[in-house]
Automatic annotation (TrEMBL):
Involved in the TonB-dependent energy-dependent transport of various receptor-bound substrates. Protects ExbD from proteolytic degradation and functionally stabilizes TonB. It comes from Arenimonas terrae. It is a multi-pass membrane protein. One of its GO terms (biological process) is protein import. Keywords: Cell inner membrane, Cell membrane, Membrane, Protein transport, Transmembrane, Transmembrane helix, Transport. The keyword Chaperone does not apply. Belongs to the exbB/tolQ family. Residues 129-237 form the MotA/TolQ/ExbB proton channel domain. This is Biopolymer transport protein ExbB. The lineage of its organism: Bacteria, Pseudomonadati, Pseudomonadota, Gammaproteobacteria, Lysobacterales. The chain crosses the membrane at residues 44-63, 158-185, 205-226. GO terms for cellular component: plasma membrane.
Amino acid sequence: MLQDILLNAAAAAAGGAANNAEALSQMGFSHLMKAMMADPAEFAVSWIVLIILVIMSFGSWWYTVVNAIKNTVVASRADSVVRTFWETPNAQDAIRFMEEQPANEPFSKIALDCAQAAAHHQRHEGSRLVDALNRSEFIDRALRQAVTRESAKLENGLTWLATVGATAPFVGLLGTVWGIYGALIKIGATGQASIDAVAGPVGEALIMTALGLFVAIPAVLAYNAFVRANRNTYAKFDTFAHDLHDFFATGSRVGDAPAKR
């Protein structure tokens, strides 16, 4: 009889271990999707969280790819555009070269705004405009506006990346908290607190936190990379703008650049 009791206990333990193993195996993303598809009303909050995370992820990758291409193009052409401008002997040819640049090339747009400001001021010599602002001040104002405009274009999408990086983990955590809350409600209603009753709902809820981190981490890395790349471009903007101011305000650039006539 003792032997039968031991055999039954061993069989029960083996059955419990098998149930636990089966329960632990049902904690993947596929099981979460099956549960959400089976009862959309019950998982309404989980659906909302998942949709928000998908939108966040799509927007983040979109801005990451767009900004990566834009920064690569700007960085690859910056030195060539600036060098060609200063090495062109004639000022009109240099301005014409800048006009031929693509619409998304920032250095040429800064140079064109500066040239237009200098020409506008020269055309209105003797007017109230010239009396109110001298040539240097007028050109400086135009350069500041141009640099600010082109800098803002480079920052397009950074707000989205920063927002996603800061909020996506908390959005995922909301799904986790709500999922665990629902699991506890079920446990209290059924009175079953075994591992096979707890593992599935809790595991499915924790997946939301993992999804939030998967969305946030690439956004944070992309944001930091673009901020650093933009900082280098801003420094080039400032250097180029100062040289343009010296040239168009005084007729010569500080340095070794050849004068244009």
